[in-house]
Amino acid sequence: MTPGVCGAFLGAVLAGGLLLVVSRVLALRRTQIAVRVLPYVRDLPQVGRTPGLRGVSASPTSAAAGVFGPVLRSAADTVERVLGGAASVRRRLARADLDKTVHEFRVEQVLWGTAAFAVAAAYAVLRALADPGGAVTSLLLCMVAFVLGVLARDTHLSNQVKQRERQILAEFPTVAELLALAVAAGEGPVAALDRVVQRSGGALSSDLGRVLAAVRTGEPVGAAFDRMAAATGLPLVARFAQGVAVAVERGTPLAEVLHAQAADVREAGRRELIEVAARKEVLMMVPVVFLVLPVTILFAFWPGVIGLHLTTP
Q: Where is the Type II secretion system protein GspF domain (predicted)?
């Protein structure tokens, strides 16, 4: 193939790609007919209507989503079929307080894998410039990088869950004490919960805010706390929610239950700290054995060695 023919082919491919992009952007700029009609039919029954009809903006992000969205969605479906575990992902998204669906998380996994693939491909290109051989090895490296990127997003989600659970455990004793003080002052469970949610912020406060919203929509207090106990991944918080539900249903003193729950969490934190120190006892001895002890021996014996050198004829 002559250089002229090759240049013409590349120019035709570039022109076709630009034509597709421009046509898609122009199509996205047009307002959907459903969006134009929807304001005039809002009072009609919601039978067979697609929820959440929204207009598509003409921003570059929307254009990119329109062009690459079908490819990303199909890739996300492929990742879902290969990996599975949609129930586990949905539970971890809820525990991490991320307002995403499983499909959106799979799309993020594909994007992470694509970024890792791009980095590996750039490295492979630089390597190929120095050493033209090894194309199969570079391809395998790119595929491994894509898989590692997909798995890295899943690991990051697990880390997000653990970080939020640590925040909940750190906030729990204070929130429980505040609830106990409000209940002991004569307020009801819902009023005490409202007061604490308004005057606190954090991961546990957001969970209690959802419980308060469920109670205000008519759900019983015990049922709302039972649902919180079922959704959380922390046994201490689950026992707290179950204890509050039982206290509300049976009329037992709620303030004493909350004080006891806060004391249990503080005691569990102290036990965990002691266990961590016991597991890392050997690591704690490393600076003592390899740093402090040699310096001490050197300080003890070095003057004697100098004295022997001075007295030796």
A: 177-299
What does the alpha-carbon distance between residue 305 and residue 289 come to, in Å, rounded to a whole number? 22
Contacts of 152 (CB under 8 A, 6+ apart): 112, 116
Task: Please give the Cα distance from 52 to 54 (Å, whole number).
Answer: 6
How far is 57 from 76, CA to CA, in rounded Å? 24
Decide if 205 contacts 197 (C-beta within 8 A): yes
Report yes or no: 244 and 225 within 8 Å, Cβ to Cβ: yes
Half-sphere exposure of 79 toward its Cβ, with a 13 Å CA cutoff? 29
Tell me how crowded residue 95 is: count the other CB atoms within 10 A of its CB: 22
d(CA 258, CA 175): 9
Q: How far apart are CA 117 and CA 123, in angstroms?
A: 10
253 or 213, higher pLDDT: 213
Closest by CA to 148, choosing from 123, 120, 107, is 120
Residue pLDDT, tens place only, 262-287: 787 778 778 878 888 787 777 778 88
DSSP 31: P
- In angstroms, the CA 36 to CA 213 distance is 33
Residue with tokens 């007061």: 195
* pLDDT tens profile 80-136: 888 878 888 888 888 888 888 888 888 888 889 899 999 998 888 888 877 777 778
